Amino acid sequence: MTEPKTKDSHLSVNVWRGGNEGELVNYQVPARENQTVLDVITEIQRFQQPDLAYRFACRVGVCGSCAMTVNGLPRWTCRTHIKKVVDNGQLTVEPLRNLPRIKDLVCDLEPFIDTWKKAGAPFSGSRTRYDPPANIKPDSPLRQAADAGLQCINCAVCYSACDVVHWNRDYVGPAALNRAWTLVNDVRHAKRQETFEKAFSENGCQSCHSHGNCTRHCPIQLNPSESITGLKKMVFKGLPKEDKK
Amino acid sequence: MNRYLFIAQRLSAMILAPLVIIHLGLILYAVSDGLSGAEILSRTHGSWAWASFYFAFVLSVAVHAPIGIRNILKEWTSMNQAIINGFCLLFGLMLLLLGIRAVTSVV
Amino acid sequence: MHPLRSHKSYLASIGHRVSGVALAVFLPFHFLLLSTAINGADAMDEYLTLAEMLPVKIAEWGLVTLLAAHLFFGIRVLLLEFTHWPRRINRYAAWIVPCTIATILIATLFIIRVY
Questions:
Q1: What is the structure's pLDDT at A242?
Q2: Which of the other chains make 3 or more beta carbon contacts under 8 angstroms with chain B?
Q3: Of A35, A88, B48, C89, whose CB count within 10 A is highest?
Q4: Which domain CATH number covers A218?
């Protein structure tokens, strides 16, 4: 083992430079008491490498745009404190796995967004503005089931963590199926049957092997693995019946 | 995986699970004093119970195994989907024919 | 090992898959051996005496172990997919240790029964 290239109170940060072809480039970044991975990347971009490409927007874990691979694992970098991930003063930051790389830490999210369409994502309302809003009991079983999968920030961490996606890029992946789960349980959704059938198409929920990487890495503690299992369970019985009033 | 293939594979798995448990039990029971053709055939010969047991076994395996192989080839090789489907169909038919021949020769 | 793969549920799934492939490869030969019985018990015994050789015995033991592994980890998959659990429990991590113990038990029993 060679000594890590760390000067005192500096982090040794390897950052992916280039597109699908490229290399890791080392930067020395001052270590601070309070520092997220995104802060470190920003510091490199501001002071050392002005043409470093990376994505972020909100910096507070809402927008889902700053996900990267940090020391081998997909993470939301704005809410990942350095102390949590640094390994002997070393940090390696790469773009997300399973997606084409555009430049440096930016990858092309289009294949990921496409999976949402493949799994039947668009909500289709059945009422007009002149109808009264649907009367949904918050504690009804279907609503509870749908609620459990909501709040996804579309960060693609689960898609990047999934080994089945890694093996078969046609597999729609955890995020899209989690979305499909919320829709098939949403009685306001006019195309529940269509969403259901899309979720069960070739490369749909049946491809999941319950590795659990999606759930393990979801930054907001959703459980896509459980949503996919929920879909699989419908294979014999079909779409869940609407709740009785 | 296609929805109907998924159903076929999981249903055949549900049938196979108890059959394999019996099969393993029999292996552990029979293996202690060596295997002999006479011993195996005395058990299976003319027995409708064993015949239907092994027929169910062969049928379920011929459904279960090719679907699993299909998933693996899809995920772990870059083979063309049509070739994978054809190969798995042939593999299933081969298992079915060899299996039926095996069962009919021991019954 | 890649950090995304160094956990039990990944190993369980790979083990289930690899044992399945091995069994699928072995099955046609198993059927062919049984078919020799069509020419009577003696014809079958010609092949069965092979089973007394140590390497063949070891291979046999391997197959029994693989069958047990595929059975128990297969039951695990069915339980994961088709039983009801409270949502907050991460079921993908469940039943791996019992399945491993059950497999080892069958593998040991086979050795005990042979000797």
A1: 73
A2: A, C
A3: A35
A4: 1.10.1060.10
**Tens digit of pLDDT for each residue in B66-96?**
999 999 999 999 999 999 999 999 999 999 9
Q: Which of A104, A72, A74 is nearest to A91 (CA)?
A: A72
Query: Percentage of chain A surpassing pLDDT 90?
Result: 83
Q: How far apart are CA A184 and CA A192, in angstroms?
A: 5
In a domain, A59, yes or no: yes
**Contact: C78, B13; criterion CB under 8 Å:** yes
Residues 84-113 of C with CB under 8 A from B: 106, 109-110, 113
* pLDDT recorded at residue C60: 87
Q: In order of start, what are the domains of chain B with their CATH numbers?
A: 3-106 (1.20.1300.10)
Look up the domain containing C109 and give its range: 8-114
Q: What is the pTM of this model?
A: 0.91
Asked if the Cβ–Cβ distance from B31 to C114 is below 8 Å, we say: yes
Residues of B in contact with C68 (CB under 8 A): 24
Q: Centre a 10 Å sphere on the Cβ of residue A104 and count the other Cβ atoms it contains.
A: 25
- A181 with A146, same domain: the answer is yes
Give me the interface pTM, i.e. the ipTM: 0.91
Number of structural domains (chain A) is 2
For testing contact with chain A, the best of B5, B6, B79 (most A CBs within 10 A) = B6
Q: Does residue C7 belong to the interface with chain B, where contact is any CB pair within 8 Å?
A: no
We report the CATH number of the domain holding residue C88 as 1.20.1300.10
**What range defines the domain where residue A61 resides?**
10-107
Q: How far apart are CA A138 and CA B32, in angstroms?
A: 62
Q: How far apart are CA B9 and CA A211, in angstroms?
A: 19
In a domain, C71, yes or no: yes
Preferred mutation among A171, A200, A208 to probe B, highest tally of B CBs within 10 A? A200
Q: Mean pLDDT for chain A?
A: 92
In this predicted structure, what is the pLDDT of residue B1?
65
Mean pLDDT of the B19-38 span: 86
Residue with tokens 């027995």: B47
